[in-house]
């Protein structure tokens, strides 16, 4: 019997898959001791991914979605255990959101012009192997969301995850590779090193086969990537203010703000980090926050103790406090808060250390302002020019427009909790890489592609 070339290819793929699945029993797929080897393997798999049909790529992405849902609780528990940050319930929701709403190959679109002089297409092509640096605040969420988008675009990816979240990140990388293998795709669509360090990161940033770097983290890593001499996508820090004016539904604003602020213990970079409130409604807002939303009002003494506990004299955050819940933070300063305490609030000036610093903890300082104009100026000051995220609660469309223009952020949520911007209780798709600094905004598969123009002169126009 004579076999066709495609039948032979199918048998080879199936045998290779079996061998590779057996190899995985001893450890995670995609994890290497050496960064150069990891990149070499990702390069081999990228050649296969780039030649796959969009349909085949989509099958792999669908399988990743399935596996994220199956493993959502495991990933959530692992993330909380390894980093000590966040809470399992919200992390499960974040993983399900990534599984269900991260864009896949449908995000890869072609632009066409046809006319008297022929046909011109602009297609979205892969970069190749992308180097990605990921944070400890949303470790597996970022790895999974990045991989789905990057593979949809025809790339593979090498990760240098945060050292505090290695196990969780490797588990997520393994899921992606298993999904690929189970669909007849290659192993190593996502890779990493067993022990990521600043040295392995430097090797990745300088490597000749990495044309694009994607950094998700604080200002240090974004600056490092943007200084690399390569194309860089920088998803950096924020300090999102939530501004409430006197026209807002104050009761709803209190609920939305506390819900957004406390989601995963305030870890998302888009989460409300402080409140700015017009004086005439400030007391009412704080009353609703306390009486209906589990907020604890910190005295001056407790505020001072919190400052001394959550950061050092230079303002560097105590990692043991980032992503902890309100009751735990209060316990650290000797306060036994009542059951159901979700958030710590107090009124203070914008310069207060717990207000002006991006804490990533459920601590919400409230800055009282005399009117809308002062509120806008205060919010701009508090956002520190990150141009990342800002939120407003107002019924006045002109004011919302003015606030949006003044803040000039990648994300602006009006009259809702911050997470609505990630498609969670709002329209649109999620991502955990919001490129505020370099301007791509909420990243998706299309962000990880390069535009290529293909022109046919004087033919193929059939109008
Ligand atoms: P981090 O900056 O401490 O670490 C992020 C990653 O960068 C880690 O992998 C770390 O190892 C690496 N890193 C840090 N400095 C580096 C350098 N000089 N060279 C190379 N790699 C370096 O941040 P984190 O604590 O993990 O995450 C929290 C921060 O990230 C917050 O500021 C938050 O706002 C931001 N963040 C932004 C987004 C976004 O989409 N814009 C998403 C998540 C987190």
Overview of this protein structure:
The protein is an alpha/beta fold. It has 16 helices and 18 strands. The strands form 4 sheets. The chain has a 7-stranded parallel β-sheet, with helices on both faces. Strands 1-6-5-4-7-8 form a 6-stranded parallel β-sheet, sandwiched between helices. Helix 7 (166-182) links the parallel strand 5 (156-161) and strand 6. It is globular. The protein binds nicotinamide-adenine-dinucleotide. Nicotinamide-adenine-dinucleotide binds next to strand 4, helix 8 and helix 9.
C-alpha Rg, in Å?
Answer: 24 Å
Counted by DSSP, the helix tally is 16
Bound ligand species: nicotinamide-adenine-dinucleotide
Low-pLDDT stretches are: 20-26
Q: How many strand units?
A: 18
Category by helix and strand content: alpha/beta
Question: What characterizes the major β-sheet?
Answer: 7 strands, parallel
Proportion of strand residues: 15-25%
Average pLDDT, all residues = 95
Overall shape: globular
Distance between the termini: 48 Å
Oligomeric status: single chain
| Helix residue percentage | 40-55%
Describe the strand arrangement of the main beta sheet, using strand numbers.
Answer: 11-12-13-10-9-14-15
Write the layout of secondary structure elements.
Blueprint: H1 5-24, E1 31-32, H2 35-51, H3 54-70, H4 72-83, H5 88-101, E2 111-115, E3 118-126, E4 129-134, H6 139-152, E5 156-161, H7 166-182, E6 190-193, H8 198-206, E7 212-216, H9 219-226, E8 231-235, E9 241-244, H10 250-262, E10 274-278, H11 279-293, E11 295-297, H12 300-310, H13 326-332, E12 343-347, H14 353-356, E13 363-369, H15 372-383, E14 389-393, H16 397-407, E15 411-414, E16 434-435, E17 441-442, E18 449-457
Parallel strand pairs: 1-6, 4-5, 4-7, 5-6, 7-8, 9-10, 9-14, 10-13, 11-12, 12-13, 14-15
Antiparallel strand pairs: 2-3, 3-18, 16-17
The structure holds nicotinamide-adenine-dinucleotide.
């Amino acid at each position: 019997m004579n076999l066709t070339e495609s039948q032979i290819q199918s048998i080879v793929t199936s045998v290779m898959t079996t061998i590779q699945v057996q190899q995985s029993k001893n450890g995670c797929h995609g994890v290497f001791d050496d960064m150069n080897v990891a990149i070499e393997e990702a390069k081999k798999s990228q050649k296969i991914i780039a030649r796959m049909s969009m349909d085949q790529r989509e099958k792999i992405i669908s399988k990743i979605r399935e596996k994220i849902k199956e493993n959502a609780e495991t990933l959530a528990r692992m993330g909380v255990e390894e980093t000590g940050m966040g809470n399992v319930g919200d992390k499960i929701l974040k993983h399900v959101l990534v599984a269900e709403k991260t864009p896949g190959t449908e995000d890869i679109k072609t632009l066409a012009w046809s006319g008297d002089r022929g046909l011109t297409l602009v297609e979205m092509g892969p970069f190749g192997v992308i180097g990605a640096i990921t944070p400890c605040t949303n470790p597996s969420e970022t790895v999974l969301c990045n991989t789905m988008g990057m593979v949809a675009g025809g790339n593979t990816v090498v990760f240098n995850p945060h050292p505090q979240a290695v196990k969780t990140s490797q588990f997520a990388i393994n899921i992606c590779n298993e999904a690929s293998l189970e669909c007849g795709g290659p192993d190593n669509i996502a890779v990493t090193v067993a022990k990521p360090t600043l040295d392995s990161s430097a090797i990745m940033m300088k490597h000749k086969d990495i044309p694009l770097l994607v950094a998700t983290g604080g200002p240090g890593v974004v600056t490092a990537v943007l200084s690399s001499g390569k194309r860089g996508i920088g998803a950096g820090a924020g300090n999102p203010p939530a501004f409430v004016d006197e026209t807002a539904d104050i009761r709803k604003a209190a609920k939305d703000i506390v819900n957004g602020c406390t989601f995963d213990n305030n870890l998302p970079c888009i989460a409300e980090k402080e409140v700015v409130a017009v004086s005439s409604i400030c007391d009412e807002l704080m009353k609703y926050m306390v009486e209906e939303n589990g907020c604890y009002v910190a005295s001056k003494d407790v505020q001072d103790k919190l400052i001394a506990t959550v950061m050092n004299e230079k303002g560097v955050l105590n990692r043991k406090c980032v992503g902890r819940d309100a009751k735990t933070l209060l316990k650290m300063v000797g306060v036994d808060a009542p059951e159901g305490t979700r958030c710590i609030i107090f009124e203070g000036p914008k310069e207060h250390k717990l207000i002006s610093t991006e804490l990533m903890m459920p601590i919400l300082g409230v800055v009282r302002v005399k009117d809308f104009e002062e509120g806008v100026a205060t919010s701009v000051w508090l956002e520190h020019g990150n141009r990342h995220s800002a939120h407003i609660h107002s019924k006045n469309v002109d004011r919302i427009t003015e606030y949006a223009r003044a803040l000039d952020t990648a994300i602006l949520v009006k009259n809702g909790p911050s997470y609505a911007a990630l498609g969670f209780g709002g329209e649109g798709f999620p991502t955990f890489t919001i490129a505020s600094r370099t301007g791509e905004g909420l990243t998706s598969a299309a962000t990880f592609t390069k535009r290529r123009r293909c022109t046919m002169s004087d033919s193929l126009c059939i109008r």
